[in-house]
């Protein structure tokens, strides 16, 4: 039987509790989940991409069937390269839906047959976002409750560099 391989792409700058929730739930629904660290040209980076991969690997230790990759290109090309059958994304609200709808349509135009699957964000994590974490860091505030404990110290250290 064909393996159900999904990709969960993002910029993960930094990874948050919202991302980890999606990874755990996504991994439970497919055979193998690739967490893809990609470049979002619309976002200014705080943490170098290789470091985001390391942080995600730390979070995914012990999650069977999950691996992290760094991809410097289009998402559609990563899907083609890996032979994945779907892309997983999370929806927090209507704005996320509009963005994901457009991206999903664009990606399926780039790679016909590419499917985008969306899971509803856990409502307790609806206000969690990477940009909120970056802003809290900027103002020197505590980011626990936004970022998983396992990477709290690593991410906090980036705030001290600004
Ligand atoms: N709960 C809470 N928050 C969540 C969440 C969840 N379940 N899922 C996502 N989020 C938040 C993130 O924290 C992040 O917050 P931010 O907007 O403040 O940064 C936001 O929702 C989504 O970011 P993230 O999941 O990290 O990914 P992204 O939207 O930046 O990723 C790419 C976009 C990288 C997938 C996209 O730009 C891409 O595909 N790039 C490659 C180039 C390409 O192929 N472009 C498309 C064709 S031109």
Tell me what the structure shows.
- With 162 residues, the chain is an alpha/beta fold.
- 42% of the residues lie in helices and 17% in strands.
- The chain has helices at 17-27, 49-60, 75-82, 94-110, 130-138, 149-159, and strands at 5-10, 32-37, 66-70, 86-91, 116-120.
- Strand 1 (5-10), helix 1 (17-27) and strand 2 (32-37) form a beta-alpha-beta unit.
- The longest helix has 17 residues, at 94-110.
- It starts with a strand and ends with a helix.
- Coenzyme A is lined by residues 9-12, 16, 18-19, 21-22, 38-40, 43, 74-76, 90, 92, 106, 121, 125, 128-131.
- Residues 9-12, 16, 18-19, 21-22, 38-40, 43, 74-76, 90, 92, 106, 121, 125, 128-131 line the site of coenzyme A.
How many H/I helical runs? 6
Uncertain segments: none
Bound molecules: coenzyme A
Strand content: 15-25%
State mean pLDDT (0 to 100 scale): 96
Topology, number of strands: 5
State the share of residues found in helices, binned by percent: 40-55%
What topology, given as strand order, has the largest sheet? Answer: 3-2-1-4-5
Q: Assign the structural class, choosing from mainly alpha, mainly beta, alpha/beta, alpha+beta, or little secondary structure.
A: alpha/beta
Could you give the order of the helices and strands? EHEHEHEHEHH
Global geometry: globular
Largest sheet: 5 strands, parallel
**Radius of gyration from the CA trace?**
15 Å
For the terminal residues, how far apart are their CA atoms?
50 Å
Index terms:
binds coenzyme A; 162 residues; 17% strand; 5-stranded parallel beta sheet; single chain; alpha/beta
């Amino acid at each position: 039987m064909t393996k159900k391989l999904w990709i969960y792409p993002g910029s993960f700058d930094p990874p948050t509790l919202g991302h980890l929730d999606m990874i755990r739930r996504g991994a439970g629904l497919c055979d193998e989940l690739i967490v893809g660290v990609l470049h979002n040209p619309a976002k200014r980076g705080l943490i170098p991409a290789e470091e985001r991969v390391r942080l995600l690997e730390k979070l995914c230790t012990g999650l069977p069937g999950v691996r992290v990759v760094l991809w410097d290109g289009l998402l559609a090309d990563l899907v083609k390269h890996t032979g994945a059958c779907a892309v997983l994304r999370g929806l927090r609200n209507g704005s996320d839906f509009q963005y994901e709808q457009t991206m999903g349509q664009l990606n399926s135009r780039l790679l016909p047959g590419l499917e985008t699957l969306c899971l509803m964000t856990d409502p307790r994590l609806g206000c969690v976002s990477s940009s909120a974490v970056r802003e809290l860091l900027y103002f020197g505030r505590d980011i626990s409750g936004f970022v998983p404990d396992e990477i709290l110290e690593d991410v906090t250290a980036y705030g001290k560099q600004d």
